[in-house]
Design a protein that fits this description.
Length: about 475
């Protein structure tokens, strides 16, 4: 048995003979035990063989009022909220299966408190949709688990920040408590609190299930008249020029037919840039490898809250009787050649990049030092230069809306942003102050994109998921 605490030493000592920990051959997320970068596509092949999918799951309509492209968190949330606002002639196109690409392997964390009042409101709406609204409407459970959230303060400045967050939470009716190290130990007995100044505990934070959430959203939307079509890749966006010389969306092209529509919503995740190019729209995001590891069983970890240590840039997500351990690397790997064939695959985990999280995780929960690794998960995620999502109508083409670039926060911001995007499409503007997310604002300040995004990712990761 190889253990988490020994992984760093073994990786540094011998790159060619990695321990079973680092090989992580027990994979929960794929049918194969080994994965090569951008080449493994076993899961989607199995799905298509089982379901007999050689074409779209439903016939394509000739026209639609809105076509949402991408069946991940944002696509499903946007479709659902468009229907909630009264639209019925709306279509969602997914090139593979719902959740393919990024959403299926997301950690699904939901923290209710952020430094922005707008984001607090967006998160509150997501939580309401996932925890109660969808179940009341459909009778189906989304997989929501309310196990609480714990933010770690290892210095006085961080504790002061958390006290301000608690005050902000009070204004929005969010229950939260600043705990002393002793109180934190009572709540989370496995945690090392010797170096802590305190913690911020939010009892009603929790964990979302991506598959359950997207399935329930799609069923709720179809019950209201929407059409969800899987296994239908988009091959082009037709754009026309009106009498005033303004470019407008005309239609969406697929290998199986064309849908006439005045409105397209780009929720394609890391593929959003390619989709934008089809319509002549600049989508300034970039794809990176993003990873976490799933541990073996940990005695006493059941029912513990999720943990976020912003200073160590690591999170610990409860996963039954185990933990998922992940974070945000100082030297992330860019995915330059985004493959259209990549759906339910994973990259090989680069331990040179990931090992920086191990010390922080073991320091916070010492039991991890003697805990084995069950699986590794390394998939694509999209990031933007200012760590803000890209939303709103593109300035180049009228009727082309963006809902992408969520910096690994697409699940927890999905409900709130899906609602705002739906309102934006129907009424021409969002209900809330979404200025920081507006693609027009983003493009105005865009400079040296790749350098900027790397700097933000490395230095401003304090409020990533």
């Amino acid at each position: 048995m190889a253990f988490l605490g020994k992984a760093a030493q073994r990786v540094m000592a011998c790159r060619q003979t990695l321990s079973p920990l680092c090989r992580a051959t027990t994979r929960c997320y794929s049918s194969q035990s080994t994965h090569t970068t951008e080449k493994s596509v076993p899961y989607e092949k199995i799905l298509k063989q089982e379901d007999g999918l050689s074409g779209p799951t439903k016939p394509l309509p000739k026209s639609a009022d809105v076509v949402v492209i991408g069946g991940g968190s944002l696509g499903c949330q946007t479709l659902y909220h468009l229907c909630k606002l009264g639209m019925t002639n709306v279509v969602l196109l997914e090139r593979d299966r719902l959740t393919a690409g990024t959403t299926w392997h997301t950690a699904g964390l939901l923290w209710q408190l952020r430094p922005s009042d707008t984001e607090v409101e967006l998160l509150a709406h997501t939580r309401n949709v996932i925890s109660s609204e969808l179940e009341e409407e459909t009778g189906l459970e989304t997989g929501w688990i309310q196990n609480g959230g714990l933010f770690i303060a290892s210095n006085k400045q961080r504790l002061d920040e958390y006290k301000r967050l608690m005050s902000l939470g009070k204004a929005y009716g969010i229950e939260s408590y600043v705990l002393s190290p002793a109180e934190t130990k009572d709540l989370y007995p496995l945690m090392n609190v010797k170096d802590l100044y305190g913690t911020l505990y939010v009892p009603k934070d929790g964990t979302m299930d991506p598959a359950g959430t997207c399935t329930t959203l799609s069923r709720a939307a179809t019950a209201r008249g929407a059409t969800v079509i899987e296994n239908c890749p988009v091959t082009g966006i037709q754009v026309k020029v009106d009498d005033l010389g303004v470019k407008r969306v005309k239609a969406v092209e697929t290998a199986h037919g064309t849908i006439q529509t005045p409105c397209v919503v780009n929720c394609a995740g890391v593929w959003a840039t390619k989709l934008g190019e089809m319509a002549g729209v600049n989508v300034p995001l970039i794809a990176m490898h993003h990873a976490y590891v799933v541990t073996e069983r940990i005695e006493g970890i059941q029912n513990m809250p999720n943990v976020r240590d912003h200073d160590a840039s690591v999170y610990l997500r409860l996963q039954g009787d185990a933990l998922s351990v992940g974070g945000y690397e100082q030297n992330p790997i860019f995915w330059n050649d985004v493959s259209d064939k990549f759906a339910f695959s994973l990259f090989d985990l680069d331990w040179d990049v990931f090992m920086q999280h191990i010390d922080g995780a073991v320091n916070r929960v010492p039991a991890l030092e003697q805990t084995g690794i069950k699986s590794t998960v390394c998939g694509p995620e999209s990031f933007t230069a200012d760590h803000k999502p890209l939303m709103g109508e593109a300035p180049e083409v009228r009727g082309f809306f963006l809902g992408c670039g969520f910096n690994s926060a697409g699940m927890m911001l999905g409900g709130g942003c899906g609602k705002e995007l739906a309102h934006w499409i129907i009424h021409g503007r969002p209900e809330k102050d979404m200025y920081g997310y507006d693609i027009r604002y983003v493009l105005c300040k865009q400079r040296n994109f790749r350098e900027a995004i790397h700097s933000v990712y490395c230095q401003n990761n304090n409020w990533m998921v």
